[in-house]
Every structure is written in C-alpha cells, then in structure tokens.
Amino acid sequence: MLDDATTLLAALRMGWQTPQHSENWRHPVAILTDLLSTARLITDTTPQAELVKSFLEMPRRAALSMLAGAWQESESFNELRQIPGLVCEGEWTNSPLITRHSLLNLLATIPHNQWWSLPAFIRAVKENNPDFQRPAGDYDSWFIRRAGSETYLRGFEHWDEVDGALIRYLVTGPLFWLGMTDLASAEDGGLATAFRIKSNVEGQMSDFRPSTFNEKGKLTVTSDGKINVPRLVPRA
Predict the structure, then answer these.
(1) Could you read off the pLDDT of 105-118 as tens digits, one per residue?
(2) Spatial contact of 159 and 143, defined as CB atoms under 8 Å apart
(3) Residue 208 confidence class, pLDDT cut points 50, 70, 90
C-alpha cells in the first residue's frame, strides 16, 4: 500500500488523471485517496506539500505506521461502504470509528503470530458480539443491497452478508494492506481462509521485519533508455 500511496501522491501532484481501475494499482484508487485524506496528506485531491515531504522522507516502517495510525483513528474512512459487491443507499449513517475499535479490540484478544481460521473467527463474533456495529441491535434501518440486486439485506438473517463481510474485509483489506496481518488460502488466488496478526493491532505498531523495509534499491537507466525503479528504492 505504501508504494501505491506514493505513486498516487506523485500523480496528483502532476495533475494526472488516475484511473479508478487498473492492473497497475494493487489497491483501489478510491480507497487510497480516502486513506491519504485521512492522513491529511491531501485535501480533496490536492497534496499538502510540507506534510507530503515529511511523509516521503520517513523510513518505510514509520511511514506505514503513520498511515495505520491515521486509519485507526479516522471517523471518515468507512469500511462498510467500501466492501466490494455491496451498495449502500439512503441517508442513514453508521459509526466506522466505533465499529473499527470494536473489531480491533476483539482481534487484540487473539495471540499474535498464530494462524487462525477466518470463518471461525467470524462465527465467533456472530455468536458472542453480533451487534458490534449495530446500535441497539437495529438490523432494519440500513439500506444495503448486493450490486445487481434490488433486494435489501435487512434483518439479522443477512448478518453474514453484511456484518460478516465487514469483518472479512477489515482483516483481508486494511489490516493486510497496512502490514498488520498475514493471510493464507487453500489455493493460489483463492479467498483467504486463515490469518495471523503480526503485531499488537490495538497498539497500532506492527512488528515489521527490518530486511523487508531496507531502502537500498537503486534507480538504473539502461542503454536503450529504459528506467528501472526497484520497489525498495528510497521514496524521497
């Protein structure tokens, strides 16, 4: 995510039009934009020069931790409205910050660096804390439907399709992108079936491997004019 965020900042600074869907982006551009806004690195789509300069000069670990901290405390970054395949309609509101903290607190009870079944964790939340994002257990006032369907997912019978999907998205989306979880699946390219927490999620900091973030890559130019930029070339 850090590399895509840096690329997006460069594109915005140069006034380029950024495609919302492209094989060159590992993360959705709309979500990257939300994250950069949450971290106050951009206002609307305008980079904030001094803050961006400081961000680019940070070591990778510090920069990723800064993004993680901004995400964790954001009231505007709304994971529920980002879930692929779901459409949220109407004037109702949810509380993403409260919901995020509730789920992070549940995840904080899991021993770190041990693999856990993601479906089993979702089932445990459903059995013990089903209303983690629903004030007073209200399952009727939110108008959420599947893309391509006109049927709203209202009522507790749709918990797995909405609330369970949110848990899966949080673990396999933001937490994974920000370096806090590892994922495993039964087959290459399949849905994640297990996860492990790499760090104390509640404490924001991740136990990154130092070698992973050793920024000693070098930009090279070949004789035919091709420019090679390794992933770990310094960002500043």
Answers:
(1) 999 999 888 999 99
(2) no
(3) very low
DSSP 116-174: EEHHHHHHHHHHH-TTTTSGGG--SS-EEEETT---B--SGGGHIIIIIHHHHHHHHTH
- Residue listed under structure tokens 């009522």: 155
pLDDT, one tens digit per residue, over 41-54 is 999 889 999 999 99
At 10, the amino acid letter reads: A
Tell me, what amino acid is at 219?
L
Judged by DSSP in three states, 53 sits in helix
Closest CA to 14 of 23, 24, 6: 6
Strands 42-43 and 143-146: unpaired
- Give me the DSSP letters along 59-84: -HHHHHHHHHHHHHT-SS--GGGG-T
Q: Which residues, in sequence order, are CB contacts of 117 under 8 Å at separation 6+?
A: 193, 194
d(CA 104, CA 110): 10
Query: Which amino acid is residue 220, in one-letter code?
Result: T
Question: Is a pLDDT exceeding 70 seen at residue 3?
Answer: yes
